[in-house]
## 1
Amino acid sequence: MIEELHAICQGRRMGVAQWDRRRDRLSFRYDDAWRGDLEAFPLSLSMPFAATAHRHDTIEAFLWGLLPDNEGVLKRWGERFHVSSRNAFRLLMHVGEECAGAVQLVQAEKADEWLGAPSSGRVKWLDETEIAERMSLLLKDHSATRISTDQGHFSLAGAQPKTALHHDPKGDRWGVPSGSIPTTHIFKPSTGDFDGYVENEHFCMALARKLGLSAASSVIRRFGDVPVIIVERYDRMRSGSKVLRIHQEDMCQALARMPHLKYQNQGGPSAVEVMQLIRQHSTARETDAQRFLDALILNWLIAGTDAHAKNYSFLIATRGQVRLAPLYDVASSLPYPQQVYPRHATLAMKIGDQYKVRQVGPREWKKAAAELRCDEAALRGRIVELATLIPDAASQIQRDMKAQGITHEVLQRLVTALQERCAECVAQFSV
């Protein structure tokens, strides 16, 4: 028996994913009308239009990349929807209508309702108390991204508990969308695993922007007694009264790599592979290559140990336009020396021959420059430049956050640690 999921984009069918139950094999075939349209774009860079159909391994990696990286969440979803938690296709039959990027995965029997109806759906608006209740529930049950009375389900990758809501900027209200109406913001409550992690992430993304890097915008709000970081989705764009989906995929999907292989030391993509992908596909290759290089430097300077391949993405648009997406999920391990011992802090992608943050120095960056095909002198200069800018930028961001009423003690620990670390790095590279 063959089951189908239709990939819908802006009211049009991109193609159909099929699961052969007897053989337990997946495939994906582009719709001829979509594939022949000059304004169309591929579902994944790993599935180019040069081939009409794509086989199991490629579409499997893409589908798994849309789901949370959390076995507990997948298990609870499997129980809730009466499907196997190890079957991405079956899970997405229930949560695939709102994913990362522009694609909506719709069951075959519903597909006709979605075609040519880009504005269907509604939003169930929530008050502050209802949002607070949802955040508390999400902390108790990370699979509770929606409640039983919600019409729309969604799926986002990542290990942290999160949900996504639709924002009405005119009324400054939040709601649960359904149908073709997209979510616009991601809500991530503080779990308590790392004290002040919400403030840490908000700070680090603000730091990236302050340094001139492109990073997702965020705010911190408190719902009840739960601090929440609210991140604006960069794969959504307002056009008048409507919100449009922008297609995107992470680097594991673009390389047809399963998401559990996101860390390089576990078989995941390296910085060299990502850089090659950028140079192969980006329509602003040198700009995006420099942006990726800046991200590697920043994550090394702040000891950002979770900058794996799923935390880098491409935005994909019409007529072959591909750009490196803004940074997201940026955070520092520096404020947590008891949980992440500084000399043991490990990067998600190695620099030269080293993963350990403290063991990366001029020699490793020299090798990285050769591997990444970058000018070594320019790279050293950029490292010194960013390390010199960070202390003052960090202090200014702390003051800005204090003015907004955000005063968690993690911020002072982070600013102090950044000042010390950047001074060490400047000294290393100024010899």
Note: The chain has 13 helices and 18 strands.
## 2
Amino acid sequence: MELITMHSSEKAFHISSGNGESVWMNGDLYSVLIGPCAAQGQLSILEATIPPGGGPPRHNHLNEDEIFYVTHGQLDISAGDDTFVAQAGSLIFVPRGMMHGFRNNTKDFAKQLLIFTPGGFERFFLEVGLTASAGRPIPEVSSTNQEVARLIGAKYGSYQEEKI
């Protein structure tokens, strides 16, 4: 049996809690844990903290699959025509192109990991969101300009669902 050895120029890395670049969007807090530069463009991982009533409008991603992994609390996650009540430990896979969204319909904060493959969509959050920093108050939910979010979303292949 021949042993195959693979060499990579990549190095292991560690990101401590609270050290990812963070932004506020629609009242939710998004922290970039892994951007595509750290994973050779293969994936991006964000941590999302969702307050009661929080969550984005339904939308899709034409270029990325998305995985939701709930780490705390409960979220109602819609994907296509299905809605899942996702509690801590739940994982939901949404293939590229499918309309989806999530909402925190509880009275407590929820947290989840958002995993995009391939990477790159975290740039949308960094362009649209308001930088979160110590000592800066939580912005009003309405402070995210939805028209700007739609335009920048389209730049990254993401489109909000049209309301009927």
Note: Residues 21-158 form a domain with the Jelly Rolls fold (CATH 2.60.120.10).
